[in-house]
Amino acid sequence: MKFYRFKKRWILSALAVLTGAIVVLSFYVFYFRAPSAFPDSTVVAVSDGKSLSSIASDLKNQNVIRSPFWFVNFVLFLKHERRVVAGEYYFDYPVNVYEVARKLTKGDFNVAQLKTTIPEGSTAFEISNIIKKNYPDFDTQKFLTLAQGKEGFLFPDTYKFGADVQPEKVISILTSTFDKKIQQQDIADAITASGRSVSDVIIMASILEGEARQTRTRQIVAGILWERIRLGIPLQVDTAFRYVNGKTTKDLTLADLKIDSPYNTYLYKGLTPTAISNPGLDSILSAVTPIQTEYLYFLTDDDGNMHYAETLEEHARNKNKYLAN
Questions:
Q1: What pairing do the DSSP bridges indicate for beta strands 42-46 and 158-159?
Q2: Which of 3, 40, 160, 281 lies deepest, with the highest CB count within 10 Å?
């Protein structure tokens, strides 16, 4: 009988432990751990003037926490009921609900660690969307309004904007970075030696960003395009259509080439009215260090290889050979 009573108690104890483990595991899985869609590597905005329960609800809707109930209780446990600090929080990786509560009650924004990379050749519109992805409250429309007339002068680089990401601040940082880069001795000397205006150089550089990928090919293309301008031949560059109808080379039709736009370099001679993107230093330097050749035409095949031609007939043969569908 003693054995059976011992066995019964052992089974009951084991069931109690198992039940406890299941409860703990369930709590962790369904309430405590980070949601599977946790917005890591981006910014989570916590609005000012909202109640704790409203903030908890917002965080759940943003997939930051699973349980508003436990978030509220952890905040209360931390004795900071009225000290959830509004602002923009950056999470490097998913964290549990307790850690979210701790960060928000401490005002541990961590936004200074957030890097925003703007690729070379990005347009102002693309830049606004890149920043918006990291900072959900970023006013893209205001940014685009302030960026008017600055296309080409918003330097592409990796930035840490910090917590206060206002359009005015971003514009200031990007344009001041451009000024510093363009004033580097080798760049400044090359522009001066070219005898061309900074504006023309940046416009050409923005075209090179879309037409070539390597330094040497950019320099050869720059030589071709400057020569076409000298001879009064339209540039006929497909990359400029991003400012006409947003299309790329493979999507262009004969009808597109007839669109009446100052950015249509098939119809209008010379450079485009403004830069068509924001070029990097390599393209800027390539624009003022062109390689002179006998070529007047070029094209890029589907593998990214460049093919040059001296005459229109040779260029047509290259098209048939390398771009035939």
A1: unpaired
A2: 281
Torsions phi, psi for 197 (to 5 deg): -75, 155
Per-residue pLDDT for 1 more than 60?
Answer: no
Task: Give just the sign of the alpha carbon dihedral 272, 276, 281, 283.
Answer: negative
pLDDT in tens, 237-279: 988 888 887 777 777 778 878 888 999 999 999 999 999 999 9
Give, to the nearest 10 degrees, the angle between helix 215-231 and helix 198-211: 120
Condensed to tens digits (0 to 9), the pLDDT of residues 75-128 reads 888 876 567 888 888 888 899 888 989 988 888 888 777 889 999 999 999 999
And the tokens for 305?
């290889």
Structure confidence by residue, pLDDT tens digits, 269-311:
999 999 999 999 999 999 999 999 999 999 888 788 889 899 9
- Give 322's contacts (C-beta < 8 A, 6+ positions apart): 299, 301, 302, 305, 307
Q: How many residues in the chain? A: 325
Q: Please classify residue 177 by burial: count the beta carbons closer than 10 Å to its beta carbon, then call 0-12 exposed, 13-18 middle and 19+ buried.
A: middle
Helix ranges, 183-214 (H): 185-194, 198-211
Q: CA nearest 124: which of 108, 106, 142?
A: 142
